[in-house]
Every structure is written in structure tokens, then in C-alpha cells.
Amino acid sequence: MPIARYAVVALLAVAGLVGLMLLVRPLIFSLAPPLDDANYRLVATAQADQGVQLIEIVLNEPHGLLGEVESGERAGLTVVISPETGTGRYTVVNAWSPTNDCEVNLGADRLVDCEGDAWTYEGVPIDPADPPLQRFPTVVRNGAVVVDFLLPVD
Fold first, then answer.
1. Domain-by-domain residue ranges, the chain?
2. Domain 40-147, what fold?
């Protein structure tokens, strides 16, 4: 008889634990920031500190950004991330040329498009007649560079 009691108590404890988990899980997700393209975790700061990098990403949905490649409900985009020396901040720019409608690649000390137009790693044009590269707001959160792809900086 006592074994049956222990089995019933154990089953009730497991059922109570499962019920508690079902109540707490929605609370956790309601308090956490949404994981959308406004809070996109691009890379860890340790990786971003290694220098200027071209990174291909997949966005949750298309936003009409320059160079965006739509694929169903998602969109691909290539960006450049560069650490700002000594500040602990990072610059993220779109790796698509606004002047020649082509990809931007890493040069020796600048970004260069298919026709030779050039920008600094922060997206500032070398030739003042050219427009800057599309830039995105960034913050550092929990050791990661978080980018807002919904609000490009003008």
C-alpha cells in the first residue's frame, strides 16, 4: 500500500511541475524582446573585434533594402561590420552600391563597388559627389552586436 501512495504523490508532483512550466513559459516569452529584424543579433563582439567583415544574413521578411534578395517570406542581405577603434561600438552598412546597383567588396583600406566607386568602412563616400552607403543602427547587448534593419540611418 505505501508504494502506491508514493507513486500517486510522484505523479501529482510531476503533473504540478508540468503545469507550472506551462504557466511560466508564456511569461518568459512575453518579457523577452522580440527576435525580429529590429533586434537582429548579427555577431558576437569577439568576432566583430577581429576586423572589418562582409557577412551574409537572412532577414525574417523583405524590407525593400538595397541589394536585398527575396526568397519566399525571407530575404537575404550582405552587410559590412566594422569596429570603431577604441569605442566598443560597431558600424554596420549595406554592402550594396547606391551608385552602380552592384555589390560592394572589401578593398585594402576601403569598400569598392563594381565600377570602382569607393567608401570608407563606415560607409562614407571617398568622392563627396557619391551618396553614402545605407547604414543601420547598432547596439551591443549581452556580448552581441544587435542591429535594427527596420530603420536604416539616413
1. 1-32, 40-147
2. Rieske Iron-sulfur Protein (2.102.10)
Cα(154)–Cα(152) distance, integer angstroms: 6
How many CB atoms are closer than 10 A to CB 39? 16
| Element (DSSP H or E) covering residue 53 | strand 53-59
Residue 148 CA to residue 85 CA, distance in Å, equals 21
CB 41 within 8 A of CB 146: yes
* 95-144 confidence digits (pLDDT tens): 999 999 999 999 889 999 999 999 999 999 999 999 999 999 999 998 99
Report the alpha-carbon distance of residue 55 to residue 45 in Å, rounded.
14
User: How far is 113 from 123, CA to CA, in rounded Å?
Assistant: 12
Q: How far apart are CA 25 and CA 18, in angstroms?
A: 11
